[in-house]
Each structure stands twice: as C-alpha cells, then as structure tokens.
Amino acid sequence: MSLHSSIQQSSDAMGELFIWTDVDPAHELDFNRWYDREHMQERAAIAGFRWSRRYHSTTCPRPYLALYRTESLKVFTSDTYRQAFTKQTEWSVRNFSRMHNTQRRVAAVTLVYGAGTGAGISLLCLGSIARAEQALKLCGNLGQAAEGILSAKILTPDPALSTPLPSENTSERVLEPYLIIDATRTSEAHKAAAAIAKQLGLREDACHTFDLLWDLQASDL
Questions:
Q1: 3-state secondary structure 90-158
Q2: What is the distance, to the nearest Å, from the Cα of residue 76 to the centroid of all Cα atoms in its chain?
Q3: Mean pLDDT computed over every residue of the chain
C-alpha cells in the first residue's frame, strides 16, 4: 500500500462517503433493518464503490456511522451515483426523515498507517487541515501508541460534494477532517487517538469510539 506524505484533496484521490447520525429511538429497529437489508447493498453495488461498512457506538450521542469507499472522488459525480442519490426508495426516504443531527461528508482519503480492518475504530475530529497535516506526521508511531493498531486514514471533506442531509444544522456546519484508527480492540483504538489528540492540543472528547457492525465488499455482490 502506498502511503502519503501530505493530505490528499484532489479528485483523483480515493473517496469515502461518511454518514454519522443519531436516529429516532422509536424507529431504530426499522432503521437498522433498512441499512442491513437494503441500503448497504445498494451503495456497495454502485459502479466505483469498493465496500460499505457500518459502525455503532454505545457512548457517542451520535451513535451510528456508515463509511463507503470509492475508487476516487470522481465516482460521486458519475451518472450512476447521481441516479442512486436522487432516486431513493420509499424505505430510504422514511429512514432519512428519522435521522437526527446527521453529518454527511464526501471525503478524500489519505492512508497514513498500516493496512486492515479492525473490530473497532476511533474517530478523532481534527478541526482543521493544519491539524490534519500535524496528525499525519504523528501517525508514523501509531504502532507504539497502543496494542493492536492496524491502520489509520485521514478523511478530508470536499465542500462541493458534501451536500448536507436535511437533519444537519447547516448554520453550525464545519467541514473538518477526521482521523480514523482501526484496531483489534476499541479500547486500544481510543488510546491511540487520545494520545494524538493530546499532542495536537485537542480535548479527549474529540475522540469517539465505534464497534464494527459489519463489512460488505462490492466484490461479494
């Protein structure tokens, strides 16, 4: 795997669709059924998508995270993706309306450490590109920061492609970069992210830990 020495922001960079949300508890069961029985497969099947992944947190007030990797950011301007985004199923429309405080980002991916998918991740909100560049340099020592660290990446949202969903408060919207650390245990992912947060002068509550619910590879369809 080729790692980068600077933050990727070009349209040729690998892309990732990032959906971080809360959901109305009264409809949480249907929300999970929709994701697991329809939405994950729909997105993974779009030309140019590589995989879909879902995560859940028991501590974060925005507990659900979905990530979708694409070959490049250009996939999000393709006719196939546009059709999928603008022609949602009735089940999708119902569940989008039940989502709260949602962040939808289309981001360029910078691979900064290792390889592999762990049992959980830690998500560190970086606040700015300057901090993302600092975080990139710090990630070279991730293997020493905690046990079982597998990989890390930085996601840099593209302003033009990161169209907000209706449940996001656009008056408070910040398109900040994220560091995502994969590890064999969520406690170790958090430990590594918290160490980087401290070095960057960020509060520890900028870190959020998620368990992997499941992974769907486009090649499996």
A1: HHHHHHHHHEEEEEEEEEEEEEEEECCCCCEEEEEECCCHHHHHHHHHHHHHHHHHCCCEEEEEEEEEC
A2: 15
A3: 94
pTM recorded for the entire structure: 0.94
Residue recorded with tokens 């979905």: 66
Give the contacts of 79 (CB within 8 A, at least 6 positions apart): none
Mean per-residue pLDDT, 138-148: 90
Which is more confident, 171 or 110? 110
Helix axis angle, 129-138 relative to 186-200, nearest 10°?
120
Q: What is the mean pLDDT of residues 131-155?
A: 93
